[in-house]
Amino acid sequence: MAHKSSRRLRSPTTEAPAARYTLMALAFLFLTLFLLLPLVAVFIEAFRKGTAEFLAAFGDPDTLAAIRLTLLVAVIAVPLNLVFGVAAAWAIAKFEFKGKAFLTTLIDLPFSVSPVISGLVYVLLFGAGSVLGPWLKSHGIEILFAVPGIVLATIFVTFPFVARELIPLMQEQGTGDEEAALSLGASGWQTFWYVTLPNIKWGLLYGVLLCNARAMGEFGAVSVVSGHIRGLTNTMPLHVEILYNEYNFVAAFAVASLLAALALVTLIVKTALELHYGAEIAAGRKH
C-alpha cells in the first residue's frame, strides 16, 4: 500500500535515467551543430592564412571606419535607451494611469516587427518622397544614409531591452521602500538615487548589456537606412557582408571574429550578472 502511495506522489517531472540522458544528449548535439561549430568555424576561417593576414584586415581604413561607427552608434543609442528604459519602467511599475497597457504594448513593438520593416519606417518618414524629407534637405539636415539614421534605427530595435528587464523587477519590489523614504523627508531625486537605483542596479546592468550587444550586432534596420557607403555608413555587420560578397574571406571572417568575440564577452558578463541578479531577487522575495 505504501509502495503504491509513493508511486502516486512521485513528481511528474521525474524521468527515468535513460530519458534524461537522451534529452541531454539531444540538447548538447543541437547546440554543438547550430551554435558551437559555426562559432569555431568563424575563428578558423579568420586565422586560416595566419596571424599576419588576420591583423592586416584591421589595418584597412574602411574596416577601422566601420569599427568606429559601430562604437559611436552604441555609445549614443545605449545611454538614450537606458534613460528611456528607466523612465518607462518607473512609470509602468510604480504608477497607475490611463494608457498603461498601451505603453507596455508599444515597448514590445520592436520584438514583433521585423528590423527591415523598422528601417523602412524611417525611409518613409525621412526619405525624399516624404513630408519631412524635402524640408530636412532644404535645411541641410541628413537623416537617411548618414549617422543619424543609423542611430535612430538602432535605438528603435534596442529600446525594449532595458525597460523589459526592469519592469518585472520593479513590480516585484513594489513601492514600499520609496514610500518609506518619502515619509522620512527625502525628495523625489534622493529617493531615486539612494533607494530605487540601488535596488535595480543588477537588472539595469543586465538590460544595458543586452541592449549594447544588440546595438553593435544589428544588421537589418541599419542596412535599410545606411546606404552602404564604405568608410562612412557601414557598421561592422554591414562591412562583413561587403567583404564576403567581394570574396575577401579572410578580412570578412576577421571582422566577424571580432563581433563573435564581443558576443562571447557579453555572454560571460551576462552569466556573471545573472548570478548576482538572481541572488538579489531571491533575497528580495525572502524579505
Automatic annotation (TrEMBL):
Residues 67-268 form the ABC transmembrane type-1 domain. Keywords: Cell inner membrane, Cell membrane, Membrane, Sulfate transport, Transmembrane, Transmembrane helix, Transport. It is found in: Cell inner membrane. It is a multi-pass membrane protein. PROSITE patterns: ABC_TM1. GO terms for molecular function: ABC-type sulfate transporter activity. CDD domains: TM_PBP2. Pfam families: BPD_transp_1. GO terms for cellular component: plasma membrane. The keyword Thylakoid does not apply. Gene3D superfamilies: MetI-like (1.10.3720.10). Signal peptide: none annotated. The complex is composed of two ATP-binding proteins (CysA), two transmembrane proteins (CysT and CysW) and a solute-binding protein (CysP). Part of the ABC transporter complex CysAWTP (TC 3.A.1.6.1) involved in sulfate/thiosulfate import. Probably responsible for the translocation of the substrate across the membrane. This is Sulfate transport system permease protein CysW. The gene is cysW.
